[in-house]
Specification:
There is one protein chain. This protein is of the alpha/beta class and about 260 residues long. Helix content is about 40%, strand content about 15%. The chain has helices at about 35-40, 60-65, 70-75, 90-100, 100-110, 120-130, 145-155, 170-175, 180-190, 210-215, 225-235; strands spanning about 20-25, 45-55, 85-90, 115, 135-140, 160-165, 195-200, 220-225. The strands form two sheets. Strands 2-1-3-4 form a four-stranded parallel sheet, with helices on both faces. A four-stranded parallel sheet has the order 6-5-7-8, sandwiched between helices. α10 links the parallel β7 and β8. It starts with 20 loop residues before the first strand and ends in a 27-residue tail after the last helix.
């Protein structure tokens, strides 16, 4: 042992890019996203880091649009100077209001080397991987917020079989919806002719009950947080399945689909 104060052998460091990193920008009021993503990416080898972005309830077009002005700063605060493979902006309704280009521009201003994703991008990639064309949508939002989300998916080419919304204005309340209620409402919201159900919102604790809902409706179920975790894995070159993640995790990215690279 070296004497006190005597320098020892210099430590050896891994290369800066030896770890694949996923960054999450999460609403400061969101109670669910970090837990969902941590569970779904556990054991994958990916390092996940999160930062919070200021947000004021109630959820409205104005409060969601206001997130764009602080998104770059919140992204930059994700371990400054450290490269990331994927940065995911964790708000579905804000992504619909701001738009993919606005979200991506804000993220890449701070982390130009990262692939920028959001729940709309992730869900679209997931639905394409599952071969979905006709889609039912379940949201916790007020109708004025639910409609832009449905419109985004319609603009992406999906036939919207139905849109259900609960008219909840506070995302902290959205996180408190019980699992049994989620399952019941998801079943009711799924059109029998739909190819899949999309459950919108990173605050809703839907990812953990996806297999139970799929067993009831007999079609794939995609949620905001589940799709985010799946796309992060696929963009980092990891194709393994995730037990309890739902049918989505058995699928690779659709051929030619490079979400988050534009």
């Amino acid at each position: 042992m070296s004497d006190l104060g005597t320098p020892g052998t210099s430590p050896a460091f891994s290369a800066p890019d030896a770890v694949r990193r996923v960054g999450l920008v999460v609403l400061e009021t969101d109670l669910t996203m970090e837990r969902d993503v941590a569970r779904l990416l556990h054991g994958s080898g990916l390092a996940v880091h999160a930062n919070r972005i200021a947000f004021s309830n109630p959820v409205s077009a104005e409060s969601l649009a206001a997130l764009e002005t602080s998104l770059s700063a919140a992204t930059a605060a994700l371990i400054p100077g450290t490269p990331f493979d994927v940065i995911h902006f964790g708000c579905t309704s804000a992504s619909a209001v701001i738009g993919d280009d606005g979200v991506s521009a804000a993220v890449r201003t701070a982390k130009p080397g990262a692939r920028a994703t959001n729940p709309i991008i992730a869900a679209d990639a997931a639905l394409k991987a599952l071969g979905v064309r006709r889609l039912s949508i379940l949201t916790p939002y007020v109708p004025e917020i639910a409609r832009p989300v449905a419109d985004r998916f319609a603009a992406l080419g999906y036939d919207i079989a139905g849109l259900t919304c609960w008219a909840i204005e506070d995302d902290r309340d959205m996180a408190r919806v019980r699992p049994d209620v989620l399952i019941r409402e998801a079943v009711a919201a799924t059109d029998p002719k739909a190819d899949a159900l999309f459950i919108s919102c990173t605050a809703v604790s839907a990812a953990e009950v996806v297999p139970l809902i799929e067993a009831e409706v007999d079609c794939p179920v995609v949620t905001s947080n589940q799709a985010a975790a799946w796309l992060a894995l696929r963009l980092c070159g990891i194709d393994h399945d995730v037990p309890g993640g739902g049918r989505l995790f058995s699928r690779p990215l659709a051929p030619g689909d490079r979400k988050g690279t534009a």
